[in-house]
Design goal:
The protein is 28% helix and 15% strand. With 267 residues, it is α/β, with parallel strands linked by helices.
């Protein structure tokens, strides 16, 4: 008689999370006529994806209201993004490879939404990250990727509008007096680790990409250096009787060593 084979028991455990039970004392609300569900109602549905509630059920903090930073020390990047998203109603894309990074954001007093977002960007910069726009979304990326991203661009006349903060921006500067190559080499030593300084010789132009705070600093330096040499000027003298070549020789001997130049031109 064949021996019956033994089968090891297999147990499958399933944990179901049921929605919170409604209070019995509350009467059912009257049906709303063709009303759209609120974002909070959508987020509380059973089929809400992980993280969907943080992005969809946020209530934007009014500009005058101040809130406390409730993040724990060494919070994960995912927790930090979820917190700022719930406060500002902005949507973010965070690569899985970056989500586990840790950061500490401490604020002893309550702060507003704008201050909170600037603190968020500064916290990202500390760990080598930044935020770039992608349509209606914001992507958290390594700061050295920002040079190839769609950053805000400020033209020469807009240099005074560069914001304060650690977000990455690009500034275009026209150089009038100084040599653009020499300025580019100087700014290359002043840029941040993720920054970039390029020169366009054809139009004597600098293209600077860095944190907004460092861009403002470099603009100030360029404006201070892009000045004519003190005391240097160009004079055009028309000769009526003197020989131009002899006059050039005489004046050159007088101003030799002073850094000037005398050129004759027959017009």
């Amino acid at each position: 008689m064949p021996t019956a084979s033994r089968c090891s028991p297999f147990v499958l455990s399933i944990l179901l999370l049921a929605p919170a039970r409604a209070r019995a004392a509350d009467p059912p609300p009257p049906p709303a006529a063709a009303s759209k569900p609120t974002s909070a109602a959508k987020a509380s549905e059973p089929d809400a994806l992980p993280g969907e509630r943080a992005f969809n059920s946020c209530v934007k903090v009014p500009s005058g209201r101040r809130v406390k930073v409730t993040l724990r020390p060494q919070s994960s990047l995912g927790d930090l993004v979820g917190w700022i998203s719930a406060m500002t109603c902005k949507r973010f894309i965070v690569p899985q490879s970056l989500a586990a990074q840790r950061v500490t954001l401490l604020a002893p007093t309550a702060i507003g939404a704008r201050e909170a977002y600037r603190a968020f960007v500064s916290a990202l910069s500390v760990i080598g990250l930044t935020v770039v726009a992608s349509g209606r979304l914001l992507k958290v990326v390594p700061a050295n990727w920002a040079v190839r991203s769609a950053l805000p661009v400020y033209r020469h006349r807009q240099r005074g509008r560069v914001p304060h903060g650690d977000q990455m921006v690009t500034q275009i500067l026209r150089v009038k007096q100084a040599q653009v190559g020499a300025l580019g080499a100087l700014l290359g030593r002043l840029k941040g680790p993720a920054g970039d300084v390029s020169t366009w010789q054809a139009s004597n132009t600098l293209i600077i990409t860095d944190s907004a705070a460092n861009v403002r600093r470099m603009v100030t330096i360029v404006e201070a250096l892009d000045e004519p040499l003190p005391g240097a000027r160009i004079e055009v003298i028309t000769l009526r009787y003197a020989d131009p070549s002899e006059t050039v020789r005489l004046l050159s001997s007088i101003f030799s060593g002073a850094g000037g130049a005398v050129v004759a031109s027959r017009g």
